[in-house]
Each structure stands twice: as structure tokens, then as C-alpha cells.
Amino acid sequence: MRHPDQELEDRYRKWSQAVDDMPRYSKSAAFTQLPEYRSLVALGPPAVPLLAKKLAQNGPNDLFLSDAIIEILKLDPGQFNQTDLQEKRAQVLDELARRGVDLPSRR
User: Fold this and answer.
1) Residue range(s) defining the domain that contains residue 80
2) pLDDT (tens digit, 0 to 9) for every residue of the chain, 107 residues total?
């Protein structure tokens, strides 16, 4: 059986590639409807610390990982900013910090 970190990295890489292959001006919702994204969410709660690290690193397209974390933890999406993705990212990271998730320093 693969280590969870390796599984997440593999699924994350596949999602990133699928996003890169999308038309440049795709709607942001399209990024979270990709099967590769759904496979990240399917990892469930054990993936949250690893997804949080990716979110904190703030790489290209990683803003959309906040939605994965919200879905996995069954948080109320309405409590997070729905128009400013950077603000939503910050709010999700703050919520994770309140929950005791160990996060790297943010950029």
C-alpha cells in the first residue's frame, strides 16, 4: 500500500496537470469539477494536513484547495469569502490553525 503522502502528491500532480491542460480562461468552478480534483477530495480527512500545506505554500491554482478542505471537513462554505479567493484561502488556513492543524509559515 502506498504512503498517504505519496498518494496525495500523485493525485495533486494529476490535478495540476489537468488544470494546466484546460483553456486559459476557464471558469474557476471547472477546476473543482475535474475528476482529478474529486480524487483529492475522496482521500478524506487524512488528506487535510497535506492539502493545508499545499494551500499554505500558495502555488499556482492551490487556492482551489480551500474548497476541497471545506468539503472534506463539512464546513459551512458560507462562512468563507466567496468572491476573493486569496481571502478565502486565508480564512480556511485560519480555521485549520484554530483546529490545531500544523501549518508551515504562509507566504
Assistant:
1) 4-98
2) 667 789 999 999 999 999 989 887 777 788 889 999 999 999 999 999 999 999 999 888 898 999 999 999 999 999 999 889 899 999 999 999 999 988 776 55
Residue 106 domain flag? no
pTM score:
0.89
**Is the separation of the CB atoms in 78 and 70 below 8 Å?**
no
* 104 domain residue, yes or no: no
Are the C-beta atoms of residues 101 and 73 closer than 8 Å to each other? no
Q: How far apart are CA 1 and CA 4, in angstroms?
A: 9
Integer angstrom CA distances of residue 44 from 25, 60, 74: 29, 22, 10
Q: How many C-beta neighbours within 10 Å does residue 106 have?
A: 13
